[in-house]
Amino acid sequence: MESNNTDGIKFFGANSNEWIGIVLSAESQKEQIQGTGGFGCRYKVAIMGHHPTDQAEIKDEDITYALVQFGVCDGSGAANKMRTPRISQGDVVRGKFLDGSGKQQPIIEGVLGRTSGTRYGKGRFESKTGFWGGLKPGNLLERDEANETSTPPCVPKAIPKGSGSDKTAKRETDKESLKAAGIDPDGEPKVGEVKKPEGNGLTAEEQKEFEEAAAFEAALNAPVTDEERANVDANLNQ
Q1: Distance between alpha carbon 26 and the CA centroid of its chain, in Å?
Q2: Percent of the chain with pLDDT over 90
């Protein structure tokens, strides 16, 4: 639902309990995010049309936390069934107010994916990078912060920056290791060419214990003959 606020500016959910907002900086909710304070899974969200853009009117730290609604496949935590929400500072999220017109109990129902065209800023309603504190860009994906069909998130580069190795370079064959395994590195591959390892790595004492245990297990699992069953019955009837 799209409506106008008192200033005539259009925004989503003005006359309903629905809203769209942006997750505030991790610094403003550090204790909750790092797990040193607070409870549950919550994020401070600046809600469009509800919170002012000017932080002089209300600080980020004073904005109400929004709970996170999980999907039915995410789990509640019962019986160790759970998934961690993947929400970062600067994410655009959508939700509802649980207390209706009170507008003090927001809950996050979903998150909008970022695109490669996302631009960052310092304002309250401007997107922020998800990297902060100890979260640093990796060598494979670098600073990829988009979730769209044109940029699959799990495709690493062929030559990771700073890895110190060229993944496209041809590696030399370790011929000595192949010879030690009984393989002729310059000949044609043959079936059964690899040597069978000598022994099984057990000491003589360990080998004896293993054989005794195997014999005992075999005796337990051996079928009982009619003669043995008759002897047992005779002993029981004495």
Answers
A1: 19
A2: 33
